[in-house]
Design goal:
With 474 residues, this protein is an alpha/beta fold. 40% of the residues lie in helices and 19% in strands.
């Protein structure tokens, strides 16, 4: 059979196995559609799978050279597997989320930086799924600018991908498969006309070119930040060549001030727990602010607000500590709902203050789920002027380059204390997990020479950051 005949056979096979459906559906891109392609069912039909594999091979792999193939999870994975076998090409597998154990990799398989990878996908509407895969592949140093797909729905996906430097080849366009179905009387001519009219009227929104915050320098990210404290913190990090946050978990105001006299020049951020200080006074706050100005660091009060909005606004602005008068930024849980952010947004001077939202925690056995983390990030999007960033452990938690990832639980060697606090290395939290600012406490505070240890942490963390933005992660 000719290539044209095989394509016609495939179109009819897909209709006959109910992989092509007509009615009213919602696509992943949020677009209502009178036609839906459910290609997940093809795994139950080996002859269809074989035909798709042969056609895609002839289209994209027979005459072109790639080091690897990678299927967009999950529908395209079996197709990519068969293509890899037929073409004798290495297959890579992208996870939708990193494992919480083992290697915690997003891309599985053997590869080296600079290798080329062909992306395999079933259907393209907006192109967002391919762009997510491209982002993860590029983060690992792979070249990923070509994709082969079964169906182009002709709703701006091809254009969106091209705008991001990714180019696709498809077995069918929607118009082509509709013509085959009409010509073979599988659907009425009017149905075909209705779908074509829908295609002309409804397009996926144009996508913004992907900006990978992980490889973007702090200076560039400062320009993209909405909250002024985030802008200032990015600038301080770039100027001081430090992404070290010191957690001063001491109960003596005198000890805290003495410590900061020794290490203040090496840190970009100082994290306090003001309610553990036994000799707190207004004079302590005055001296703390003076040190912050002299050494050019910001102050983060790790209050972890978690009450109803009205109470939180009072905790922030009133009481003994009057946190809002001296802390550049504070931490807050999202658990009470967005009322807590609305309250802080109303009581704060957002021109000089900001919030780090807790999206994840570093303690073993904590109850924060992936759904909770995702909801936290969505909540923050409603109040960008108030948000400095997120306290989190995973680079996939958020994508917005104007936010800052603050990651606690770091020591020079991996460990775990008797109370379940898990410590990761600087290399792991910056290169693998995407941390922008790294919190170190006892590793410096409890050292025989805090100043010497602060310099070691500062230099180690900065080298990891420089390695990350260079793209040389191996």
């Amino acid at each position: 059979m000719s290539n044209k005949q095989n394509l016609e056979k495939l179109a009819l096979d897909l209709f006959n196995i109910n992989a092509v459906k007509f009615g009213e559906f919602m696509t992943k891109s949020g677009i209502k559609s009178p036609v839906y392609f459910d290609l997940r069912v093809i795994v139950s039909y080996p002859e269809v799978m074989e035909l798709i594999t042969d056609l895609l091979y002839d289209l994209a792999l027979k005459d072109d050279q790639y080091d690897h193939v990678c299927g967009v999870p999950y529908t395209a994975l079996p197709i990519a597997t068969l293509l890899g076998v037929k073409a004798r090409k290495s297959m890579l597998m992208r996870r939708k989320e990193a494992k919480a154990y083992g290697t915690k990799k997003m891309i599985e398989g053997h590869f080296k930086k600079g290798d080329s990878c062909l992306i395999i996908e079933d259907v393209v509407t907006s192109g967002s799924s391919i762009l997510e895969t491209v982002s993860d592949l590029k983060r690992e140093g792979l070249v990923a600018n070509q994709a082969v797909i079964i169906l182009d729905r002709e709703q701006n996906g091809k254009q969106n991908l091209a705008a991001n430097g990714v180019y696709i080849k498809s077995l069918f366009t929607m118009s082509e498969i509709l013509k085959i179905l009409v010509d073979n009387e599988k659907i009425t001519k009017q149905m075909g006309i209705d779908v074509i009219n829908y295609l002309n009227d409804v397009k996926a929104p144009a996508s913004v070119p992907v900006v990978d915050r992980i490889i973007l320098p702090y200076e560039e990210r400062a320009k993209l930040a909405v909250n002024p404290v985030a802008k200032q913190l990015f600038s301080i990090m770039a100027t001081k060549k430090s992404n070290l946050c010191l957690s001063v978990d001491l109960t003596s105001a005198v000890d805290i001030l003495d410590l900061l006299e020794k290490v203040g020049e090496h840190v970009c951020l100082v994290k306090t727990h003001i309610d553990i200080i036994e000799d707190f006074s207004d004079n302590f706050v005055t001296q703390l602010k003076q040190l912050a100005q002299r050494f050019n660091f910001l102050i983060l009060e790790d209050r972890k607000f978690a009450d109803i909005g009205h109470t939180v606004s009072l905790q922030y602005s009133k009481g003994v500590y009057k946190i809002g008068e001296w802390a550049d930024c504070v931490t807050s849980h999202s658990l009470p709902g967005d009322g807590i952010l609305k309250a802080l947004n109303n009581v704060m001077d957002c021109a000089n203050r900001g919030v780090f939202l807790l999206a994840e925690m570093s303690s073993a056995g904590n109850l924060i789920s992936s759904d909770y983390t995702e909801a936290t990030v969505k909540m923050a999007a409603k109040y960008p002027e108030a948000i400095v960033g997120f306290v989190c452990q995973n680079k996939k938690t958020f994508n917005e380059p104007g936010f800052i990832q603050l990651t606690p639980g770091v020591q020079l060697e991996s460990s775990k204390d008797e109370l379940g606090q898990v410590y990761n290395t600087p290399e792991k939290v910056i290169l693998e997990n995407g941390a922008d600012v790294v919190v170190v406490g006892r590793g410096i505070v409890a050292a025989k020479s805090p100043e010497t240890q602060a310099v070691i942490y500062k230099d180690t963390l900065w080298k990891c950051y420089m390695k990350r933005i260079s793209g040389k992660l191996e």
